[in-house]
Amino acid sequence: MSRGFLRRFAHFLSIWLLTAAITWPQTRPPQRQPQPPPDPYNQLDSNPTLFYVLAAINAAGYDEQADSSTNSPLRGRVRDYLAKQNLASLAPLKRFVRDHKPKNPAAELGQYISFALWSKGAPDFTPANPDLPQPADADALYEFPPLLAAFYREANLAELWRQAQPDYDRAIAQFTEPLTFAVQQVNAYLRHVNTGVRRGRFQVLIDLMGAPNQVQMRNYVYDYIIVVTPAVEQPVGDIRHAYLRYLVDPLAARYAEELQKKARLGEYALQSPILDQPYRDDFVRLATESFIKAVESRLDRRSALAEQAAREGFVLAPAFAELLQQYERQEVAMQLYFPDLVSGIDVKREQQRLARIDFLKERPVRSYRVTSVVKPPELTGVAKTLDDADQLFLDREKGTANTVKAKELFLKALQETEQKPMHARAYYGLARIALLERDPETADRFFRKILELEPDPATKAWALVYIGKLSDSQGEKEPAQENYKAALAVQGISDLARQEAQRGLTGAFARNPKSKEQE
User: Fold this and answer.
1) Mean pLDDT of the region 366-376
2) Is residue 83 part of a domain?
3) Residue 70 near residue 370, CB atoms below 8 Å
4) How many percent of the chain have pLDDT more than 90?
5) Which long-range contacts (CB under 8 A, 24 or more apart) does 445-454 make?
6) Confidence band of 89 (pLDDT split at 50, 70, 90)
7) Are residues 409 and 266 in the same domain?
8) Rg (CA), the chain
9) Residues sharing a CB contact under 8 Å with residue 90, sequence separation 6 or more, in sequence order
10) How far apart are CA 223 and CA 118, in angstroms?
11) pLDDT value of residue 232
């Protein structure tokens, strides 16, 4: 029996199995056979925990695009209903949402989506996996569960969820056909057959309570979850991209060693002014995204997409797009063909191509026809004073005048309010300015003052890190180590502060006590 016949038969069998998996009805297996695992992809659903979380923050001050006509009518009905209730649990919830509102309005929804997906849900909303770290963007919401649980009970959100089901059913029905087509399109191109062996799932969740035109992807261990809100245009392309990532990520990880042999090409990507940092730091990730964009260019029959991807920094996309033409002319599934595809990349040839590339200076922006956009509320009073001071301090490279003005505003903030958290922020600014002025004694005093003033977690953690560094500068190792450890124990510490505290524990900032005497 010829090898060509075997390959053609294997290709026929894979397509037959794929078609069967898509079109045949589910049948119950014989009694003594185990049930097959659930299909890990093409799941389209709603999520009650996501509804509870977003209903709560809508009642408590989350107003992004609240009056846009693109919103689901459900969002307005729920907001109106909750606004008419006299709920004791709402006041502390409003304070929490106000205090955890990021400067970037787009990040506000993201942190609550991450919280909801990581939560085990009602009635207490604690983490589903307490032994694993929280998603980074939801790390600061550690005090949210009891506030949400109280609001859930008092507002009877379970009943609201029951009443919302028809709205979600209609939204899911609108997505079913285009999503099914997108998944089948990818499966057919990659010649992927679900065997039920892979861990994890691909799931699309419909959210009707968030601002419109949002597509948010989360990858938790083996699970890939996409959350989509109402949109002018169904984001099927974004969902298809996420599904490609779900299938390709394990493939790229399996053949990471082969990909690394082409890592010299990643040096060209560093010249892109718009390429995100994770792709700069991880060549395998860069290559994976380049491959996905190349597949999309072939699926859409638009070769220019691969060239544009390269100009955005995904420098392997044109090479992959050309090699995919060879893949299309043979019969082996991508799962087996991928190492041949990678080995087909001619590094010298690609270096010549990339030497001539004209990288984009600005990131392409997709526009939506949103009829009304709600701008973030303007800061007033001491909040504006502190924000202005922070901006001047960040712009201190532009001249000493900015630092002097920032100092004046931080001092002004101390006079404008008696709120301890606001005082903590002002002293944090003054302490950093004291360091710039080479006045470590004043800086140390201000950083320690912060710890007496109910600072927010981020400010508290940084104050402890700075106190540790100042102790290290004096050769005081034990106090320094105690402060680094205290900083790491703060719930809500930022990633950068955590890294600095960990470096401090290794002795990175330590100074020999004798060196002071030798000066």
Assistant:
1) 40
2) yes
3) yes
4) 61
5) 450/424, 453/420, 453/421, 453/423, 453/424, 453/427, 454/420, 454/421, 454/424
6) very high
7) no
8) 27
9) 59, 60, 82, 151
10) 11
11) 86
What are the tokens at 184? 């089948």
Neighbours of 90 (CB within 10 A): 21
- DSSP-assigned letter for residue 97: H
Closest CA to 47 of 142, 138, 128, 107: 128
Task: Say whether both 74 and 138 belong to one domain.
Answer: yes
Find the farthest-apart pair of alpha carbons in the chain and give their distance in angstroms, rounded.
90
What residue numbers bound the domain in which 132 lies? 43-174+201-217
Nearest residue to 472 (alpha-carbon basis) of 425, 516, 427 = 516
DSSP 218: E
Q: What is the pLDDT of residue 274?
A: 95
> What's 200's DSSP letter?
S
Condensed to tens digits (0 to 9), the pLDDT of residues 154-195 reads 999 999 999 999 999 999 999 888 888 999 999 999 998 776
Residue 98's DSSP bridge partners are none
**CA-CA distance, 226 to 30, in Å (whole number)?**
35
In whole angstroms, give the CA distance from residue 289 to residue 244: 10
| Residues in contact with 86: Cβ distance below 8 Å, sequence separation at least 6, in sequence order | none
Domain CATH number, residue 394: 1.25.40.10
Assigned domain for 238 exists: no
The sheet with strand 43-45 has its strands ordered as 43-45, 202-206, 223-228, 215-220
Are 52 and 112 within one domain? yes
In total, the chain counts a number of residues equal to: 519
Question: Where are any strands of DSSP class E within 9-143?
Answer: 43-45
Q: Residue 11's Cα: distance from chain center in Å?
A: 38
